[in-house]
Amino acid sequence: MAGERKQEILQAAIEIIADEGYGSLSMRALARASGMKLGALQYHFRTWEDLLRALVSYIENEIIERFEARSLNEDSASVQEIAAFMLDDTTGTSDSSLGDRLWPQLWAMEQVEPLVSDLLEDVYARYLELLEGAMRAAGIKSPRVEALWLMSLLEGESLFTGAGRRWEGDRKAVRAAILKLIGERY
């Protein structure tokens, strides 16, 4: 039961970050959004650092579970499969636009929160490792350079066509074009 409640609280934290920006996340705001008093929230997360540590771990575990659910690994995944995964929502929620709103906030948050910076480094390292392995398997001569180039392209897609952006309506077309380009290139 306590594990379920913690998960609900962490989901509420993700929604605050995505909907209102990371600057709106505080222990008090999270308690309010979770329908509890601050003292009850502190029963689950005694300090801000405890909350951030749990939040980072939760997001990372969700991404790892999705990697595993799609059976993405260096030995079998193609460059196009990995890119499609990176373009998909990876937050573990049913709201597909949540990831598009969450990731830019996490990028901003990493500038002030070392734990969030560590999360993003771990996630990017995993993506890079997968892409490099797939590119090696595809016979690419400079797999690291190509993987970094592709990661930049995929991140840019999310930044420029994500939820609430001026070009949001072009998102499906942009994603389809990116996947077509990747298919032709690799």
CATH class: Mainly Alpha
Q: CATH topology, which one?
A: Tetracycline Repressor, domain 2
Q: Give unreliable regions as ranges.
A: 90-96
- Overall mean pLDDT: 84
The tally of beta strands, per DSSP, is 0
Query: How many angstroms does the end-to-end distance come to?
Result: 47 Å
Give the second-level CATH assignment, the architecture: Orthogonal Bundle
- Taking Cα atoms only, what radius of gyration do you get, to the nearest Å? 18 Å
What does this structure look like?
About 30% of the residues are buried. The chain has 9 helices and no strands.
Q: In brief, what are we looking at here?
A:
By secondary structure, the chain is mostly helical.
Summarize this structure as a short list of keywords or feature phrases.
186 residues; 9 helices; 0% strand; elongated
Q: Mind sketching the topology for me?
A:
Layout: H1 2-20, H2 27-33, H3 38-44, H4 48-69, H5 79-87, H6 98-109, H7 114-137, H8 143-161, H9 171-185
Helix pairs in contact: 1-2, 1-4, 1-6, 2-3, 4-7, 5-7, 5-9, 7-8, 8-9
